[in-house]
Amino acid sequence: MKIMTIYAHPADTITNCGGTLALHAQRDDEIVALILSHGGRIHANKYAEEWRKANPDGDVATAGLDDIVANKKDELDRAASILGIGKVITLDHDDTYATVHEDVVEEIAEQIAAEQPDVVIADHPRSPAWFDAHSVATGMALAALSRAGTYLRNLDGRDEVPVRQVFLTGLPVFNLDALSLNGLRNDCYIDITGVVGTKLAAMDQFVSQGYHGLFARKLVESYNGEAGRAAGVNFAEAFVRLYNETHGALPVTEAALAADPLTRHIAYSSVNLRGSYPVP
Ligand SMILES: [Zn+2]
Asked: What is the average per-residue pLDDT within 207-233?
């Protein structure tokens, strides 16, 4: 299977689905990460920390956009190789877009057509009225999927693009059932407990935006811990499937059949994250 992630910023891929990608890399699935913007204008944490010092390091405090972007690319490359992402494609747009751009849709469609992924992972677009960079990125990714879906061998001289499923991340709704909140919820959980140290090591690379060390552990404990609580495991990543799926019989997973509601609280609280994976 080939997976293509499409996210707005360099670190989004790791925080949203890094554990899931590490698991698929272990299965020898091919992974391509497409990142729309360079992230040079967001999360300037390392630089802001320096500005606040009495005697700031001049190189850090006066870093220009090229330096910041180059440093972030290094961080991304290291994180990608830790997770087993085989290929990183950065389109290097500025971080300021607030609407869908026709030319970026075309760029993404070209990358989808060239890579031919079976599965795409992107952020949940949440509200269409919220012109957040992540929502806009997914708007462009979905438009690009539609466009790539119109490529035909006889008209365009290239293969059609049969993406089988899109998994959407970042919806902070962890209901345990389909009836609460009118059915709005993540509907698919991946147990990342076995690779949580790999995800932390990847996040530890993003020093420039303060995603390393204590923050990485805080995010995984809280965000992946909450998804894990909904899933009955220590740490999970949560997804919403875009398309319906067809099964030969009712799809009740082994984990669902094995779940013990009375001891769940122990099963999903068995890892001391900071003890097992201390800040390096
Ligand atoms: Zn982001």
From this structure: 96
Expressed in angstroms and rounded, the spacing between residue 66 Cα and the centre of ligand 1 is 19
- Distance from residue 12's CA to the centre of ligand 1 (Å): 5
Highest-confidence range of 39-53, 154-168, 218-232, by mean pLDDT?
218-232
Options 3.30.70.360, 3.40.50.10320, 3.30.1300.10, 2.160.10.10; CATH of 2-276: 3.40.50.10320
Alpha carbon of 162 to ligand 1 centroid (Å): 27
- pTM beyond 0.85: yes
Residue 263 in tokens: 């001891």
Could you tell me the distance, in angstroms and rounded to a whole number, from the CA of residue 35 to the centre of ligand 1? 10
Q: How far is the CA of 203 from the centre of ligand 1 (A)?
A: 13
**Per residue in 226-264, pLDDT tens?**
999 999 999 999 999 999 999 999 999 999 999 998 998
Task: Report the pLDDT value the prediction gives residue 64, as an integer from 0 to 100.
Answer: 83
Asked if residue 60 has pLDDT above 90, the reply is: no
CA of 149 to the centre of ligand 1 (A): 26
Instruction: Give me ligand 1 centre to Cα 54, in Å.
Output: 30
- Within the chain, residue ranges assigned H as helices are 12-26, 45-51, 58-61, 65-83, 102-115, 133-148, 153-156, 196-203, 213-219, 225-231, 254-258, 264-267, 273-276
Instruction: Please determine, for residue 50, whether its predicted confidence score (pLDDT) is greater than 80.
Output: no
Contacts of 98 (CB under 8 A, 6+ apart): 131, 133, 136
Distance 275 CA to ligand 1 centre (A): 28
Please tell me the distance between residue 25's alpha carbon and the centre of ligand 1 in angstroms.
23
Which of 69, 32, 82, 41 has the alpha carbon at shortest distance from 201? 82
User: What is the CA(11)–ligand 1 centre distance, in A?
Assistant: 7
Whether 186 and 171 have beta carbons less than 8 Å apart is answered as: yes
